[in-house]
Specification:
By secondary structure, the protein is mainly α. The protein is built from ten helices and no strands. The longest helix is centred in the last third of the chain and has 36 residues.
């Protein structure tokens, strides 16, 4: 008698609806936590290797630039002397910490399987501001810091840096909250502590650099009236 009720059309229809809802929920979570969009087995690992290689190369390029700029000011020791390396480590502490942290974090991410594609992709958006930061340095080397291009580029640096390196973190928390039905301010209390610590370590230098960029922008845009007077 009981099995007949369980096998009734209404119960079977309810079971089908429930399974369909669960499958849709799994699909949404998969999009956020792995397997959504392009095949992550091909796209993300390849890009991760590119970023890891770039960070390692950039550390070496930074050292070469430091050595060539300071070899006349502070003579003594060869290119790879201990004194030269120590000066480089002292003067580029923050940037080196940033690069090494990325290397130490991204390398294990390569072994993560197919989990967290959405969040890994979001973190990569931080590099959207890099071309504008680099263009600003190139224009300064070309003595074009008073040009209109440099001022427009400065605005783009501010906007992309804020959106892709600072506002990005609340957006990721908000997106997670939307999927699991949590308000934004409750999300940090429902995810692993390691995630909060890692995000805190990532956003801290971004906030520091953003303050420096704002100060530089203030000097850049307030210098025009001063010269006019």
């Amino acid at each position: 008698m009981q099995s007949a009720k369980e096998n009734s059309p209404c119960n079977l229809k309810d079971t089908t609806r429930k399974e369909k809802r669960e499958e849709e929920d799994r699909g949404k979570l998969k999009m956020y936590f792995g397997g959504g969009g392009m095949d992550p087995r091909l796209s993300l690992p390849l890009y991760l290797w590119v970023v890891v290689s770039y960070m390692a190369y950039d550390i070496y390029a930074m050292y070469l630039c430091h050595w060539h700029k300071n070899t006349e000011k502070e003579p003594g020791g060869g290119m790879y002397s201990l004194a030269s390396v120590q000066r480089f480590l002292r003067r580029e502490k923050l940037m080196l910490t940033h690069h090494l942290f990325i290397l130490l974090v991204l390398t294990p991410v390569l072994l993560r399987g197919e989990r967290g594609d959405f969040f890994v992709g979001c973190i990569f958006l931080a590099e959207l501001s890099t071309p504008f930061v680099s263009l600003g340095k190139i224009l300064m080397q070309l003595q074009m810091q008073d040009s209109l291009l440099h001022k427009v580029n400065g605005i783009l640096v501010l906007v992309t840096f804020f959106l892709c390196r600072i506002a990005l973190f609340p957006f990721m928390y908000w997106s997670y909250g939307q999927q699991v039905g949590l308000r934004l301010h409750l999300v940090p209390f429902h995810i692993p502590l390691l995630c909060n610590v890692a995000n805190g370590l990532l956003i801290a230098p971004q906030l520091y650099w953003f303050v420096l960029i704002c100060r530089k922008a203030l000097r850049l845009y307030s210098s025009v009236p001063d010269r006019a007077r």
